[in-house]
Design brief:
The complex is a heterotetramer of chains A (307), B (377), C (264) and D (363). With 307 residues, chain A is mostly helical. Chain A contains 14 helices and two strands. In chain A, helix 5 runs antiparallel to helix 8. Chain C has a single domain, classed as MetI-like fold. Chain C is globular. Chain D folds into two domains: 224 residues, P-loop containing nucleotide triphosphate hydrolases (Rossmann fold, 3-Layer(aba) Sandwich), CATH 3.40.50; 124 residues, OB fold (Dihydrolipoamide Acetyltransferase, E2P). In chain D, 23% of the residues lie in helices and 35% in strands. In chain D, the strands form four sheets. In chain D, strands 6-7-8-3-9-10 form a six-stranded mixed sheet, with helices on both faces. In chain D, strand 4 and strand 5 form a beta hairpin. In chain D, helix 2 packs across helix 3. Chain D is globular, with a radius of gyration of 25 Å. The chains are: A mainly alpha (307), B alpha/beta (377), C mainly alpha (264), D alpha+beta (363). Chains A and C meet through helix 2, helix 4, helix 5, helix 6 and helix 8 of A and helix 1, helix 3, helix 4, helix 5 and helix 6 of C.
Chain lengths: 307, 377, 264, 363
């Protein structure tokens, strides 16, 4: 018996060791999805006491307010990602290409630091800062930018602000990583070929940093799509988003089946996003092909010139 | 041919080996996950898992209980009755021994058969309870639950802005447009309000303000309520229950539709605010202690409930957090300063205006859906 | 024109960077500052005081929550490092690297979906919620970080080293212990610390999956925030910050921060 | 096609002086090679010319125009970088078209120019490929085309062939040479490989580790008549023998300790050549004849013992220990399958060389 076990162990050693992680993934990620999917398409008839298959909840989502809420969350996530991108790019650019080495390490260190504190703590900090008697209100009133009756909490802007401050480092880091790894000789080569700084940025630095930008957008877009603590705490529950609806469905109104259907749609989101990225690449590739086709046509047209 | 068969056999053997390995792992994992369940059956340790809202039991009271009985208390916090309901729906509340829930949820849980019947022989302190709170419609014989604290949903407002006597305070001040009220000269300035963030209570109060009724509504009336709530959103600063004191005290809003729980805290800070049950009516919330059927420590749970209902501990709790206790004498020993504010301790006349909303599950679903529309607007 | 652009580069860029850092740090700074404020309703500065810390230390609930958080975080770190590393090493040796791209899903999905997924699973099979569900969820997240980081390092390692060790007569186990583990150490430490802080800070999974006996610090803080502005939250948050920064500092002093950054 | 002139140029990094007071003139239309050991600062010179670095002191001229403070992208000088630095996100076509696009030229012109240049480097048909899918030699040619398309006055090449294998290197060298003949652009070629420099250039300069130019001239001048021990050693192999100068009736002789007198010859008399001074004789190994028997008709003959033989195929290298213990290296062409005499280890041999083949160097 012992021998047989030993034989199995040696023959399948790599399977034995790689299995737990994959199993964990299946049990706690894919199986839950299966359960969610099951919840979302199976309903219980209380009269007949039977379970039956239904697409009711999906129809409900696509025909009522829910789809609009999903769009709204999408919009919020897109705005957050866009704002993050606009702030993060200069910072990443500065970190990667300017500044002395030692200073850079310090800046980088201080960049990760806030993102490693709890999101809840950061949100609370903003609440504390923006409240009527908080530092920012006080400052803006003192400088007479806003009137004393104006307050900053509980609106859309505050939600975006909180989101951006929580997710900004996730946008900076991937862009920084790509820019930092980029060979500085490309910049030299570009300058050597007659491009000024702006042209170099437009034609070399930015296109080469695109993988980092995509990664950053993914890392910001997806969590801000599902976020519910920030709209609740900084938005005064006045704005309902996908995340808050799911929480509501699961913890409050107990319509789990609807919540599960909503969640399933949410799972589709990253896949959708990935498709977008691939589509973008394909379009670029097509553009390139067209360009080189034009060029070939040009060559054919001028055959006498170039042989 | 033979070769192929051999290959097939080898393949099958490998498959079997691998599934055996996966099986072993799965068994280990499942065992690890179900261990707590086994523990809950065989545990002899004297601990109680209490599930309650925040600011319910004061740390001192808990300490006192642990000291006197040697029973260790684990408290988990919920924010809403619905959360508790959701946890019960999952597995009948396995793991919890004493739960603190509000009236309508008591009815729901007892209907579903999640609760144990109380044994009054172990609860001598039940006699110390305020009779006004006993035998209410959600548990007419108090077979499953005993009230432990209570409060009202009413209006907290700034006396400088609303120069109205508390008896004349109306829900119109939160449901009607403050601009219009200001133009009519009823208030000294336009303002924004804080609104309760639970759909049921919002619908109930809106119904009271619109139709002066609370028993049922027709679909047309329901739509009218939804319209009113949608319209109200324009002047709502925040949908919240707990942060109300912050919004009032920092002067962002002068009036809030909220619970009487926070009033004492607000009074501690400022004299400017008054609490009133609107003349259309308010909501009475009775929080009760119940024992889930799944609890195997009924004796300890009874001991805990009895302890919490005693005069001494009830006073301790209500003084710590400022809510009104269901215990008669605890209420009497409350600070004299608050006593004179009669509206926190309503007389029979005012008390009659308080109702306990019990929605059918269909009405609740409708309210939930419509509330989503309010949130989305 | 040229002058303008130069101006842009030399002046505007550092300005934007400075503003971004101010934006990230202002709330934290104010938070920490006011945790030492003596006022109970934190409107203005009323003098230095440690009373909120005192209150914090004397609150058994916070200490219980902290204990729960620590247990979950340590178990999560241990588990995700163990099964993550085993997976990376074994799958390379067995050449089944196909599965490793699977684990990016854990980070890419909205966390709330993972949370309700685990909640539904446990409900479906009537498994009691508690430490089990929390550790399951956090480890899922942890694997999403451990496997890519450790794998990046492992792929960089020269396979000749392993082969040399095996060639010299060492068994797989000895090779794993004496060659691979020491070489992977920096990435193990980095991802371990990352997972630890991740688990300490995680809110969503903890919010959905905590059962009757467990309440983590992040969930406790959330329920505190829901109930209003209390300077004790400032004190809790400051402690959070101090713990996190100690960990980050540890990480930096180990000079593996670059690795984390480039492989993220 | 313009000349380049560096006047008293200095440059230091982190307080360390790399280039000190350098003067260098490169004539218009030359294929100029700058040869020096690694780390001597030759790349720095190139970067200074390109504008990738700014000078600390001194002036740089392109033709008659001073370009010391002209920013890099406005100089009509282009560079082929060491590892090519081809933009990985652009196709071959876009890489080559880069400098034209930056100058906002019309699409028609760009197409025509790129086609022309790609044809020139024999890469027509590769337009749509990405650099990573090309071989080393092809990448090299793209880099060349990219630099040439802008029609620079001066083309700088920074060790362009370092990454290629020997065979390909030889091929590319020939091509470069032909290209330069055709274009007549001034090429400045930096390398540490003397073989490349000698093969390819019209003019070359040798830089010593201190960053000074030791000698400038045609490859032949530099190889045959090095002016210093460093140059003689760095360019090709050589035997250095130390001795003392004797002059009688315009006959130059060198007395070497333990070996006696050598007759030498110098085409030009140098200032330091005073009788009795210590000096160095440099004799190229291939200019020495080795035989078992003594031969007639040589100005200098020596005896020694073979201590080492390395067979190179086309030639054989012998190391002969002379009487005074010094080793002399001799290259012998392997001209025949069956040589008349075979020299073996420990054989006593005679070595001969003519006095014209000796170069006198300052000690």
């Amino acid at each position: 018996m012992k021998k047989a076990l030993r034989a199995i162990f040696t023959q399948e050693s790599s399977f034995v060791f790689s299995c737990p992680a994959v199993l964990w993934q299946f049990v706690f990620l894919y199986m839950p999805f299966a359960v969610l999917a099951l919840y979302s398409v199976i309903d219980f008839n209380e009269v007949t006491g039977r379970y039956f298959l239904t697409a009711f909840y999906y129809r409900e989502i696509f025909t009522s307010l829910y789809i609009q809420i999903i769009f709204r969350s999408f919009l919020l996530a897109a705005i957050t990602a866009a704002v993050c991108f606009l702030i993060a790019y200069p910072v990443a650019y500065f970190l990667a290409l300017k500044g002395s080495k030692r200073f850079k390490t310090f800046l980088l260190f201080s960049l990760i630091f806030p993102s490693w504190t709890s999101l809840i703590v950061q949100v609370y900090a903003w609440f504390f800062l923006l409240e009527k008697n908080g530092f920012i209100s006080w400052f803006l009133q003192w400088t007479h930018i806003i009137s004393p009756s104006f307050h900053l909490l509980n609106n859309y802007f505050t939600i975006v602000l909180g989101m951006v401050s929580c997710f900004l480092p996730f946008m900076i880091l991937p862009i920084y990583a790509v820019l930092e790894k980029m060979d500085k000789r490309f910049l030299e080569a570009s300058a050597d070929l007659g491009a000024d700084r702006f042209e170099t940025f437009r034609r070399v630095v930015f296109p080469m940093s695109l993988p980092g930008v995509y990664a950053g957008i993914m890392l910001v877009f997806i969590p801000s799509f599902g976020e519910f603590a920030i709209p609740t705490l900084l938005g005064g529950s006045k704005y309902v988003f996908w995340g808050s609806v799911i929480v509501d469905k699961f913890l409050r109104s107990r319509s789990w089946r609807l919540g599960a259907a909503l969640a399933i749609i949410g799972i589709m989101l990253p896949i959708l996003l990935m498709c977008c990225v691939y589509l973008g690449r394909a379009i670029r590739e097509r553009y390139r092909q067209r360009q080189s086709k034009e060029y070939t046509e040009y060559l054919n047209a001028n055959k006498d010139l170039w042989g | 041919m033979n070769e192929r068969l051999d290959k097939l056999a080898a393949c099958a053997r490998r498959l079997m080996r691998r599934s055996a390995i996966v099986g072993v792992y799965l068994v280990v994992l499942m065992a690890a996950l179900y261990v707590p369940l086994l523990f809950s059956y065989f545990k002899t340790q004297r601990t109680l898992n209490v599930y309650a809202f925040t600011e319910t039991f004061s740390p001192e009271a808990i300490e006192l209980f642990e000291e006197r009985t040697g029973i260790k208390i684990n408290i988990t916090y919920a924010e809403l009755d619905e959360e508790i309901g959701a946890k019960f729906a999952i597995n009948g509340g396995i793991g919890y021994d004493v739960v603190n829930v509000s009236d309508f949820m008591v009815r729901h849980l007892s209907k579903q058969g999640y609760l144990q019947k109380l044994d009054y022989s172990c609860l001598p302190n039940a006699a110390r309870l305020n009779p006004r709170l006993l035998g209410r419609v959600f548990d007419p014989k108090n077979a499953y639950s005993l009230p432990h604290k209570w409060f009202m949903y009413g209006l907290v407002y700034d006396k400088n802005v609303f120069k109205v006597s508390p008896d004349q305070m109306s829900l119109a001040f939160v449901f009607n447009d403050p601009e219009q009220l200001y133009k009519k000269g009823l208030v000294s300035r336009p303002y924004r309000v804080c609104m309760i963030d639970s759909p049921m209570d919002a619908y109930f109060l809106s119904m009271l303000s619109l139709f002066n009724r609370f028993d049922q509504f027709t679909p047309q009336e329901f739509d009218a309520i939804t319209r009113q709530l949608l319209q109200q959103k324009q002047w709502v600063e925040c949908y919240t229950l707990y942060t109300v004191e912050y919004f009032l005290l920092s002067g962002i809003i002068p009036i809030a539709l909220t619970s009487s729980n926070f009033v004492r805290k607000i009074w501690d800070m400022s004299d400017q605010y008054e609490f009133a049950i609107p003349r259309e009516g308010g909501i009475l919330v009775i929080e009760n202690l119940v024992i889930p059927k799944t609890s195997r420590k009924g004796d300890l749970a009874h001991e805990f409930i009895n302890f919490m209902l005693s005069d001494e501990v009830a006073t301790l709790n209500s003084q710590e957090y400022g809510w009104t206790s269901a215990n008669k004498s605890a209420q009497e020993t409350l600070d004299a300063q608050y006593k004179r504010k009669s509206h926190l301790f309503p007389d029979e006349h005012v008390f009659k205006r308080l109702h306990i909303p019990l929605f059918t599950s269909y009405a609740r679903r409708c309210a939930d859906d419509a509330w989503l529309r309010v949130g989305f607007a | 024109m040229v002058e303008n652009r130069k101006y842009l580069g030399q002046f505007l860029l550092p300005l934007v960077v400075g503003a971004a850092y101010l934006f990230l740090y202002l709330p934290i700074f104010v938070l920490v500052l006011f945790s030492f404020n003596d006022a109970s309703f934190s409107i203005s500065w009323q003098g230095f005081s440690l009373r909120w810390y005192e209150k914090l230390i004397n609150s058994p609930e916070i200490l219980n929550a902290l204990q729960a958080s620590l247990i979950v975080a340590l178990a999560t770190t241990f588990l995700s490092l163990l099964i993550g590393t085993c997976f990376v090493v074994a799958s390379r040796w067995g050449r089944t690297s196909f599965f490793s791209n699977l684990f990016y899903v854990n980070i890419l999905l909205p966390e709330i979906v993972l949370a309700i997924g685990i909640l539904s699973l446990f409900t479906f099979f009537r498994i009691p919620l508690g430490y089990g569900s929390l550790i399951a969820g956090h480890t899922l997240l942890g694997l999403g970080f451990v496997i890519p980081i450790v794998r990046a390092r492992f792929v960089e390692l020269d396979p000749v080293l392993t082969e040399a060790s095996l060639d010299l007569g060492a068994t797989y186990w000895v090779t794993f212990r004496k060659v691979i583990i020491p070489l992977l150490m920096p990435s193990l430490i980095a991802s371990g610390l990352l997972v630890f802080t991740l688990s300490m800070d995680d809110f969503l999974i903890s919010f959905f999956c905590s059962g009757p006996t467990v309440q983590t610090l992040a969930v406790y803080v959330y329920s505190m925030i829901r109930t209003g502005v209390d300077p004790m939250i400032n004190a809790v948050s400051t402690c959070f910050l101090v713990i996190s920064s100690l960990l980050v500092f540890l990480l930096c002093s180990l000079k593996v921060v670059d690795q984390v950054l480039t492989h993220e | 096609m313009k000349s380049i002139r560096l006047e008293r140029v200095s440059k230091s990094y982190d307080g360390e002086l790399i280039i000190d007071n350098l003067n260098l003139e490169i004539k218009a239309g030359d294929f100029f090679a700058l040869l020096g050991p690694s780390g001597c600062g030759k790349t720095t010179v190139l970067r200074l010319i390109a504008g990738l670095e700014t000078v600390d002191a001194g002036r740089i001229f392109l033709g008659d125009q001073e370009i010391t403070h002209v920013p890099i992208h406005e100089r009509k000088i282009n560079t082929v970088f060491q590892q090519y630095a081809l933009f990985p996100h652009l196709t071959v076509f876009e890489n080559v078209a880069y400098s034209l696009r930056v100058r906002k030229m019309a699409a028609e012109t760009i197409n025509a120019r790129v086609a022309e240049v790609l044809k020139m480097v024999r890469l027509s048909g590769f337009e749509g490929k990405y650099p990573r899918s090309l071989s080393g030699g092809q990448q090299q040619r793209v880099a060349l085309a990219r630099a040439l398309v802008a029609e620079p006055e001066v083309l700088l090449l920074d060790e362009p062939l370092a990454a290629l294998d020997l065979k390909l290197k030889e091929e590319m060298l020939t091509e470069l040479n032909q290209l330069q003949d055709k274009l007549k652009t001034t090429f400045v070629y930096v390398t540490h490989d003397q073989f490349e420099a000698l093969t390819v250039s019209d003019q070359m300069a040798i830089m010593n580790p201190q960053g000074d130019i030791e000698q400038q001239g045609t490859p032949k001048q530099i190889y045959e008549f090095p002016v210093s021990r460093f140059v003689a050693n760095f360019v090709g192999n050589t035997n250095i023998i130390e001795g003392r100068l004797h002059i009688s009736d315009r006959d130059y002789q060198v007395e070497v300790e333990g070996l006696g007198m050598f007759s030498v010859y110098t085409p030009t008399e140098k200032l330091w050549m005073i009788p009795g001074c210590r000096l160095l004789m440099s004799v190229r190994p291939e200019k020495v004849l080795i035989s078992k028997k003594p031969r007639e008709g040589f100005s200098n003959s020596l005896q020694g013992k073979v201590v080492d033989i390395i067979y190179y195929g086309r030639s054989t290298q012998y190391r002969v220990r002379l009487k005074n213990g010094q080793n002399l290296i001799v290259f012998e062409q392997n001209e025949e399958h069956f040589p008349q005499e075979s020299i073996d280890w420990d054989d006593e041999v005679h070595v001969h060389f003519q006095k014209e083949n000796v170069v006198l160097l300052e000690h």
